[in-house]
Amino acid sequence: MTAYSNINQLFATKKTTALILAGGRGSRLKELTDIRAKPAVHFGGKFRIIDFALSNCLNSGIRKMGIMTQYKSDSLLTHIQDGWSFLNNNHLGEFVRVMPAQQRIDEVHWYLGTADAVYQNLDILRSYDDEYILVLSGDHVYKMDYSVMLMDHIKSISPCSIACIEVPRENASAFGCMQVDEDGLITDFIEKPENPPAVPGNPDKTLISMGIYIFEKDFLYRLLEEDHEDPSSSHDFGKDIIPKIVKKGLAHAHNYEKSCVRNRTKAQHCYWRDVGTVDSFWIANLDLTREYPDLDIYDPSWPIWTKTRQLPPAKFIRDSRGTRTVSENSVIAAGSVIYGSEISDSVLFSSVTVDQECVLERAVLFPMVTVHAGTRIRKAIIERKCDIPANFEIGYDEEQDRRYFYVSPGGVVLVTRAMLAVLEKDRPELYRPNAGR
Questions:
Q1: Which domain holds residue 265?
Q2: For 284-299, how does the pLDDT look when each residue is reduced to its tens digit (9 = 90+)?
Q3: Per residue in 311-338, pLDDT tens?
Q4: Is residue 295 part of a domain?
Q5: pTM (2 decimals)?
Q6: Which residue in 175, 138, 174, 142 sits closest to 36, CA to CA?
Q7: Is residue 415 in a domain?
Q8: What is the number of domains present in the chain?
């Protein structure tokens, strides 16, 4: 890239405001979103899901970010306050600003949809007076240089650009599906079709929208005002705004291959995951335990920023009988203490305690989980602050798992404190001192 191009890119990012849509219910994640918004769900041993979109903005040179929240936003707000306030600089015009649903337009409606969330903040956006509006989903995991997409958008001379990626056709029904001509113009857009269209020449793939849009500001403002006046609209980008733009031939497709930040050990691979179900969330976490994971969170040139607690290093010690801890292919966060147990292909967040003679296999344990002696856990997600009784099994007895916990279509067992309270009431003997010993 030439120096002239670098200057143009720098100017463009400084004239861009990013809006991160973080108000969804996230119901497909079941009890993981009972107390928090989906973007605030823990991920990868240290992060929250929203950290990836925010880090992409920061690393791309976009330093003005608005986060639109609505449902169960307390933990998300706390995370943004504690982990991202370092970016707020009034003198340089840099900020991470939370934009909660607050009935700015009237005293009746909260955010009615993703497009309405932006519409209700038009007065704020106009005050920023930026040329480009970057609209992002706050619940995907990926690494992307938005400045590259921004330059591609400017070059296209289109008022709107949509990032796209090819996915297996059998998985495409959960997304907005696109068809693109040879000039990169989007010719068709169908939101979550039952029979997704195939990519020409590749019947097993479908081109989908990543939920990443760049708009010329005045064009977006006019669209949102028109949409607000339409009583038949659901006021959603995917269902209403994007199809309308596509029909007018005004939407440009940006190929994610151009802007993805590639894994250093897999130069040809672009990583993007929608972690919206229990199964996809569990798989994405376990991907990080491989020797060369598709998502490189160890790349210092593209760091994933997050809230950092002051914790001691993780510790692996022999138990009282002298049994060593054996850990392989696992991610273990700071503050965790493991006593003479076996851990394989697992992700343990901060301050997890695993007592002696336990076996953890393909397990994801959220912060401050305690696993008592002799317990075995396999193919499971354990929610924050759960206290797992001694000599208990999770992931081995399907009948027991389905009785007390949630079991996903893929067989992942989800355990929460509320579920354990039912277990304790039904089987109090598990919680007596030295139970089963």
A1: 3-287
A2: 999 999 988 989 999 9
A3: 999 999 987 787 888 999 999 999 999 9
A4: no
A5: 0.93
A6: 138
A7: yes
A8: 2
